[in-house]
Amino acid sequence: MTHSLLAQATHTNTIQSTVSLKTQAGSNKLDMLKGFKAGKLRKNAKNKIAVLLSMATKIELRTQTMGMDDCFNDNAPQIVDVDFFWSWYEKEYSDLEIYLTVFEGVLTKVRFSDCPYHFSDDIVLTFEEVKAKKPHFTYAQVKQALLDGYLCPLSNDSKAPEPTPPNDDNTRKVVSFGDFQDRLESKRDRLENASSKAAAESNKFYESSRSLASCIPFGQPILVGHHSEGRARRHADKIFNDMGKSVAASKKAGYYADRAASVGTNGIASDDPEAIGKLKEKLAGLERSQEMMKAINKVIRSKHMTDADKIEYMMQTHQLTEKTAQELLKGDFCGRIGFASYSMSNNNANIRIVRDRIENLEKLHNQEPLSASGEIEGLSWSLYEEEGRIKITFDDVPSEAVRNTLKMYSFKWSRFSKAWVRKITPNAIFRTKQLIAKLDTN
């Protein structure tokens, strides 16, 4: 556990220092404090937590102790530093709740609590009041500004703004998908933390196995029948098992590290608000490739041009390299010159697939998000969409039959969201509607 804390502290300190430099370099503290909303903050949003730490004017640890009357009494707050915070954060992560307090649109306090109820140890961040300096105007400037039609020359240098129409866009793209990049960063952070913990665990078991093995002289056999036989066999089993656990944890660390490195690189996600634009760019590239292959094949098969002219055409018009142009003109192992028919057929198939996906995603993004609630087996349930996922929550643990029904419809329990979740896709929407009907009938 010690190694895990050190690795985590190192990683989070790196994030904190980077964000702190960005905050000092280019952001206004008041504007940043206005960017937060009151309520709960995800405990795995380490980048945002690092920003809050960089802006906090005071970091207090508030603890409680039980008195002789069996009541919890508040201790005097202690001022702690950032390093202490990250160590405490890692230790209390599983039960952590984060609450933001906003007053008049400005973030004033952040409370990190290890228990959502009464008796908890908290770390509280507070922020000094930041006020923007008001400009000073002379009477002549105020009079002239009023004549020019300005709304309030003492506090605003712009004229009366045009009324903005209300935002009635209640589509899934706006309501359900949220900040896609923030979700990717959170997922990458979780996987990197899991990799660090597994690596620390691997190192712990390796050191345990090595220290036990170092106590036995090299080549020393087990003395059968001797009073040390039982202890020697237990030591041998312990050495073998710890080394096996070390190897398994090392593989686990590599697995999570590979997953962290691949986040955001596996194509265009359906829950990306910009997915349709990206797909249209991909479609345009595929269509350009198809037209290029057609034009080159027509030139290569022409009998009115020399080979040198054909190569020059492909190099000048379509920016092919001389080697590629010569290979197309020479043909493949079957003697087919130019682009093979299967290449053009495959590209056409990809064009059709991308067009169908654009059509499906346009319907998906422009629909209203799913929302439902009800009661089953005496438990209240609620279904909603958030962060690119369909989520179902219950007010208590559902029965095994209900859990099996959720699994049958591809919902999985998320310990981070504290809900049963499934990624938003066209098929997921269809199956979720069937699940809602089934939950309502029970």
Tell me roughly what share of residues is in helical segments: 40-55%
Number of helices: 14
* DSSP E strands, number: 13
- What integer value in Å does the Rg equal? 32 Å
Mean pLDDT: 82
Q: pLDDT under 50 segments (min length 5)?
A: 1-27
* Outline: extended
Assembly level: single chain
* Separation of the first and last Cα atoms: 46 Å
Strand coverage percent: 5-15%
Order of helices and strands: HHEHEEEEHEEEHHHHHHHHEEEHEEH
Report strand order across the widest sheet: 1-6-7-8-2-5
**Major β-sheet annotation:** 6 strands, antiparallel
Q: Strand pairing plus helix content: what structural class?
A: alpha+beta
Short characterization:
By secondary structure, the protein is an alpha+beta fold. It is 52% helix and 14% strand.
How would you describe what is shown here?
With 442 residues, the protein is α+β, with helices and mostly antiparallel strands. Helices cover 52% and strands 14% of the residues. The protein has 14 helices and 13 strands. α1 packs across α4, α1 packs antiparallel against α7 and α10 crosses α11. It is extended. The N terminus is likely disordered.
What distinguishing features does this structure have?
alpha+beta; extended; six-stranded antiparallel sheet; 13 strands; 442 residues
Tell me the layout of helices and strands.
Layout: H1 2-26, H2 29-34, E1 39-41, H3 46-55, E2 58-62, E3 64-66, E4 72-74, E5 78-79, H4 82-91, E6 97-103, E7 106-113, E8 122-126, H5 139-147, H6 172-175, H7 180-214, H8 229-262, H9 275-300, H10 307-317, H11 322-330, H12 341-366, E9 372-376, E10 379-386, E11 389-394, H13 400-408, E12 412-414, E13 419-423, H14 426-441
Antiparallel strand pairs: 1-6, 2-5, 2-8, 3-4, 6-7, 7-8, 9-10, 10-11, 11-13, 12-13
Helix pairs in contact: 1-3, 1-4, 1-7, 7-8, 9-12, 10-11
